[in-house]
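S.,

As promised, the pyridoxal-5'-phosphate run. Input:
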Amino acid sequence: VVDVDGNEYLDVLNNYTALVHGHAFGPIVDALARAARDGSVHPAPHARQLRLAQTITQRYPAAELVRFTNSGTEAAVLAARIARRATGRQRIVMFEGGYHGTAPDFVGETADTIRVPYNDLDAVSAVLDNRVAAVFAEPFLGSGGVIAAAEGFLRGVEALARSAGAVFVLDEVQSLRSAYAGVHGALGLRPDLLLMGKLIGGGLPVGAVVGRGELLELTAAARRDSLLHSGTFNGNVLTCAAGEESLRFLDASAIERLNGCAGRLEADIVTAADKSGVAIETTRSGSIIQVHTSGAGRNTDPTMAAALHLALLLEGVYAAPRGMLNLSTALGEEELRRVADGYRGAFARLGALREGIGAT
Ligand SMILES: Cc1ncc(COP(=O)(O)O)c(C=O)c1O
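Predicted complex:
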């Protein structure tokens, strides 16, 4: 990317993981041009919608039916409405540090949402009763700092939710890039509903609720008591055309390469920080890496995070201000070397700065 002053950056933010093939990926641009000639949106089902939905149901084991939205936020809203309708209950359980977009239920603006610590099954168990409609979980805390789920945790949440009669919603908006069949496929989970977004739109606005047929069918327009879910741009054909290509090129070998490259880059980042005497920790899930500047497993030092972000910009690397970076298939060996060099340079700047401060 090039900023308005003409400075060039290698983008390892990729619009917060949505651009898994980078910017202006050739096959997506071509598919968009072809689709645009047919018009961008129609108030009726379209063959391109069907194709993307079929790609999703064939690839992801928990996906029986698909309902498209325009964002992950909207998908979370719809999933909560489906869960409430299906159970006749009101409460939502989610995790501290969890992120499902910015609708009121998910940002602490309603009294219906209970937050419990991630990786704590006892805490989940303690709040599950016959008032809980749904438990929302991410396969790893994404925005919350790329914190992995402990072994057995997600399976435990699924079992607890099921035995309490609550809908288990797994939010794969970020994690879909980590494994060919999603994290639920890799772990053999069977969530009632999945949230999808980001990469299934190939860089265009998108979200989807997918999952058990009997739950998704609650939204079927033909039902007399249908749960109304309309939206002028839901499943627009440009998004569907781009999403189709995005998923097609994110095959098992592309994912394996991305995850492998991310592992090596993470190791390079740790070595570079060590060499410059800058205290960091890293966490990683697939091709998403978090550099924690506090050294305590979380970004508790916003000043250091901001300093690292600025130093990286000076080195020509565009990462998230909160310390997250993620890879796209557009980054070849040469670009990955430049990213690693950028981190080396950034840590050297921070190390020198600290020495300077110490000296005065
Ligand atoms: C796990 C997760 N869920 C939901 C969302 C919300 O998606 P959107 O930004 O498309 O509304 C995000 C966005 O970052 C996310 O990371």
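The first helix runs from residue 14 to 17. The radius of gyration is 21 Å.

- D.
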